[in-house]
Write a structure and sequence with these properties.
Layout lengths: L3 H6 L1 H5 L3 H6 L5 E7 L2 E8 L2 E7 L9 E5 L1 H7 L11 H6 L3 E5 L1 H6 L1 H16 L4
Parallel strand pairs: 1-4
Antiparallel strand pairs: 1-2, 2-3, 4-5
Length: 130
Amino acid sequence: MIDIAGLLQALPARANVEPNLLRIGRYCTTEFLLEAGDRPFHLAVDRGRLADVAAGPFRMRAWSFALRAAPQTWARFWEPLPAPGFNDIFAMARYGHLLIEGDVGPLLRDLRYVKEVLALPRRMLAEGGR
């Protein structure tokens, strides 16, 4: 099984040096929750920079939207070539593998940025990262 916490903690260092990601996220400022089973992770984005990734549990930590899935689901999503139904957050939601909660406005407004950030672990794992 992959180290989801380590992978997510390494995301800011990787995301904040990707010129294309910084460009498409330049207007993105939001906070969201990514949950892997019972392990919550709070991601804060400030003008396209992944400012913080914090591991929970949290007491009353604010977020705009939440993406909740089992650790195995995230592992399948981050495979080099994910199977149908695990290749996209909306596909995972459609097939019942992922729950999207909260205010989806910020998610939809900055959808490409969020999808690109969430796909980074796929590349990190392929390159021998965590």
